Amino acid sequence: MTLRGALLGVGNVAMNAHVPGWLARPEVELVAAADVCHGGRAAFLDAVPLARWYDSADELLHAERLDFVDVCTPPSTHAPIARLALSLSLHVLCEKPLVTRPEELGPLVELARSQDRVLFTVHNWVFAPILEKLLAVVRAGAVGRVRNVAWRTLRSRPAATAAQEGARNWRTTPELAGGGILVDHGWHAFYVLLGLVGEEPETVRARLVNQLDPGAPLEDTAEAEIGFRSATAHVFLTWAADERRNVVEVHGTEGTLLLDGDSLELSRVGEARTERWTFSQSLAHGSHHPEWFDGVARGFLREAADPRARGANLTEAALCVSLLAAANESSARGGEWLPLPRLF
Q1: Are residues 108 and 154 in the same domain?
Q2: Is 53 exposed, middle or buried (0-12, 13-18, 19+ CB in 10 A)?
Q3: Residue 285 pLDDT class (50, 70, 90 cuts)
Q4: Residue 257: which of 151, 153, 155 has the closest Cα?
Q5: For the chain, how big is the Rg over CA atoms in Å?
Q6: How far is it, in rounded angstroms, from Cα 183 to Cα 270?
């Protein structure tokens, strides 16, 4: 059975990751796309010449016969677009963050359940080969019980967007982005941490600051500590670094894993020898990662085909929303430890 899908938002991530990913899957047909900006129109129709173009998601959704939508619009539009698509009984794949406000999540979850449709967030970093290996080594018990994780994402600026000439980058525009680097990169850190620790987070404290421009409306640097039942995690994210780099340290009862750039190193307690793996690309190589999308697509299509497979991705997304909400509130309170809100 072929699933008919439409792309809503045709920017860099859509054209460089999602479109080639869908075109590689014979069970999926992209039949249409919509964007209020026309910058991606020519490239999309060149890649998918039989598809149709619309100037708004609303126009497309009321004109096409579809099975699913792939939402790649700026974050503030995710909730209303997902709500409309679900109300029309369509499966929804959505770029992160799924929502920007915690109160938006519960109604979407209830709508998806009432319509028996999938609500799925793009958690693509877990399909990066170096992180797949890191997660596999941890789950195999090589470091024992995880007790502490340190995550650092260093960037010199926000990722570019496919804005029209003269337009601002939506990642630094509050009414579109819904947050600064904590939304943009913190979401990735959060869902990977959930897989590494294997527990739900309980508390968080955070500080969000602007290093480059104290008057900027959104933070360029975020630091958060997350408390789990038997582990802690420290997350540091910045757009104010002089390099592109990711470093992840996982400390367990039986050893330590260090991810730095394109290498992963395992040190075991009581052993002088270390194991080392080198990968062709680091996490900081590029911003679109089309090769990571296949795992996302497989997970989404599996949930669309089998209701029994649903739940894990949405639970991860809900925890990410809770972490974002509590971290922002903690920063507003001067870095106070706060419990995570339960959203549904």
Answers
A1: no
A2: middle
A3: confident
A4: 151
A5: 20
A6: 40
Q: Are residues 209 and 331 in the same domain?
A: yes
114, 137: one domain? no
Cα gap 338→238, rounded to integer Å: 22
Place of tokens 């999926």: 28
Distances (CA, A) of 217 to 102, 113, 172, 214, 234: 20, 36, 8, 9, 24
Return the residue matching tokens 């052993």: 271
**3 state DSSP class of 189:** helix
pLDDT, position 44:
98
Taking a C-beta distance cutoff of 8 angstroms, is the pair 246, 258 a contact?
A: no
DSSP annotation of 274 = E
**E-strand spans in 78-202?**
91-94, 119-121, 146-154
E strands in 185-262: 203-209, 221-227, 232-238, 245-252, 255-260
Quick check: 7 and 19 in contact, CB under 8 A? yes
Q: Could you tell me which residues are beta bridge partners of residue 29?
A: 4
pTM value > 0.90: yes
Q: What are phi and psi of 153, to 5 degrees?
A: -120, 115
Dihedral sign, CA of 259, 260, 265, 268? negative
The pLDDT assigned to 163 comes to 52
Look up the domain containing 25 and give its range.
3-124+300-307
Q: Is the pLDDT of residue 286 over 80?
A: no
Q: Check whether residue 68 and residue 151 sit in a common domain.
A: no
Domain tally for the chain?
A: 2
Based on the domain organization, do 131 and 117 belong to the same domain? no
SS3 assignment, position 301: helix
What residue type is assigned to position 154 of the chain? L
The gap from C-alpha 180 to its chain's centroid, in whole angstroms, comes to 14
Asked whether residue 197 falls in the same domain as residue 265, the answer is yes
